[in-house]
What we know:
Layout: H1 3-26, E1 29-31, H2 32-39, H3 43-51, E2 58-59, E3 65-68, H4 69-85
Antiparallel strand pairs: 1-3, 2-3
Helix pairs in contact: 2-3
Amino acid sequence: MSATQNSERNYFIQNRQEHETDNEASLELFTVGDAATVLECSTTTVRRVAEEMRLPVIRSVGGFRLFSVHQVNRIRSERERRAIEALP
């Protein structure tokens, strides 16, 4: 294998590993209770936010609502930003 081929192979492996790590992170899921804890609100509020389509829902085979960790953290960041903007 030439030096160029070896370099290309290493680049491909590194990018593939980074991509797989990103995919694994995106597969982390919260239950309604977990999301409520992170968002510091009730489970009813989490369900309402999901029904309003502000928080994408994944349904398990058993019908349970599951939420992407990334999306829950996005909602939390938005709430924190709005709270800071509301300060005098």
